[in-house]
Write a structure and sequence with these properties.
This protein has 369 residues and is mostly helical. The chain has one domain. It is 69% helix and 1% strand. The chain is built from 18 helices and 2 strands. Strands 1-2 form a two-stranded parallel sheet. Helix 9 crosses helix 12. InterPro entries: FA_desaturase_dom, Fatty_acid_desaturase.
């Protein structure tokens, strides 16, 4: 598990080498349009602005001090943490720096130190997702953990996934409030994995974040307000992150076994774009162009909008379904898919209840007799 190893980009490059393939022809159009060029000034400005907002948030936290108004600062910092995570995402795909060492260094600063997310753990997980999106055995994002993503997973579910699965569509957004905590826990747990390279530096930066974060909260605020700040900040951070990633693949077709289409179809058919203007681009970090991002993970995010018409036309020429919806519709489709996935659990519970009722009725009749 090597931080900075962009398996997604390597998979795209390998697909490009398949001369004459549908993706290779698309790639030539994208390169000819100059859309794979670096954007150093864009990222200098973006990182500078986010760094300034990050610093301003903590200065505001110190100035507001022992007041319930500090919860407003918690909301602000939740959004800023989400934006830092999006920068770490772009760094991980080597959109910002060409060299791996620079990407790893920046990724660990943004991930481990700034927001308490294990960069090496996330990079490995996210790259495997990119290589096989929505594949039940190969994509870690659709392996059942707390939620089930298909009816097959629901039938095999036990324990917590089975308990939550029957109502998971209604619980999805509430559960996203725990995602920030999950990132911290997963990052710490990954440090025990010997395959994680640079474990020492990752661990030092990760625990430095925790020490500075918790230290600031409990030095500036009394315990009650510190815990309230932590809860509001981390829960909204998790909700924001989850809301960014939920529209991208949830509710799209899933793959299993040897069902692996070619690279172009594998990425397009399992991804969904979200319509919107500049505000959507900023809020979702360019991931609203999920199809283009999955096809060209190394493409700087501001160029994804320009790539979209080229990719859409190419897909239309090949008869490949290209889905783009509003943000609300994308959430609706994701929730509907979760509800459908949990159907076998609900049906099983209903059948069990019917059997119990029938048994009780027979017992009552026997007693009366």
């Amino acid at each position: 598990m090597e931080p900075g190893a962009d398996l997604a980009g390597e998979a795209a490059e390998q697909a490009c080498k398949e001369t004459g393939s549908d993706f290779a022809r698309l790639s030539k159009k994208i390169v000819a349009a100059g859309l794979m060029r670096r954007r150093p000034w864009y990222y200098t400005l973006r990182i500078g602005v986010i760094t300034g907002l990050f610093a301003a948030g903590w200065v505001a936290f110190a100035l507001v001090g022992d007041s319930w108004w500090t919860l407003v600062v918690a909301v602000f910092l939740a959004v800023v943490f989400g934006q830092v995570a999006l920068v770490a995402h772009d760094v991980g795909h080597r959109q910002v720096f060409r060299l791996r060492k620079a990407s790893v260094r920046a990724g660990k600063i943004a991930g481990n130190l700034a927001i308490g997310m294990g960069y090496g753990w996330w990079q490995d997980k996210h790259s495997r997702h990119h290589a096989n999106p929505n594949h039940e055995e190969l994509d870690p994002d659709v392996i059942p953990d707390i939620l089930v993503w298909t009816q097959g997973q629901a039938r095999a579910a036990k324990g917590l996934p089975r308990f939550i699965g029957r109502s998971q569509a209604f619980l999805f957004f509430p559960l996203l409030t725990l995602e920030g905590f999950n990132l911290h826990v997963a990052g710490v747990r990954a440090l025990a994995n010997r395959s994680l390279k640079q474990r020492t530096s990752e661990g030092i930066l990760l625990f430095t974040h925790f020490a500075l974060y918790l230290g600031a909260l409990f030095v500036v605020l009394p315990p009650g307000k510190a815990i309230a700040f932590l809860a509001v900040h981390q829960c909204l951070f998790g909700l924001y992150l989850g809301s960014i990633f939920a529209p991208n693949h949830k509710g799209m077709p899933t793959l299993s076994g040897n069902d692996r289409p070619d690279f172009l179809r594998r990425q397009v058919l399992t991804s969904r774009n979200v319509r919107g203007g500049w505000f959507t681009d900023i809020a979702l970090g360019g991931l609203n162009y999920q199809i283009e991002h999955h096809l060209f993970p190394n493409m700087p995010s501001p160029q994804l909008r320009e790539a979209q018409p080229i990719v859409r036309q190419h897909c239309e020429e090949l008869g490949i379904s290209y889905l783009e919806t509003s943000l609300i519709t994308s959430y609706s489709q994701a929730l509907r898919s979760l509800h459908d996935a949990g159907a076998p659990i609900r049906e099983s519970a209903a059948t069990k209840a019917d059997v119990e009722t029938e048994t009780e009725t027979k017992a009552d009749v026997k007693v009366d007799a």
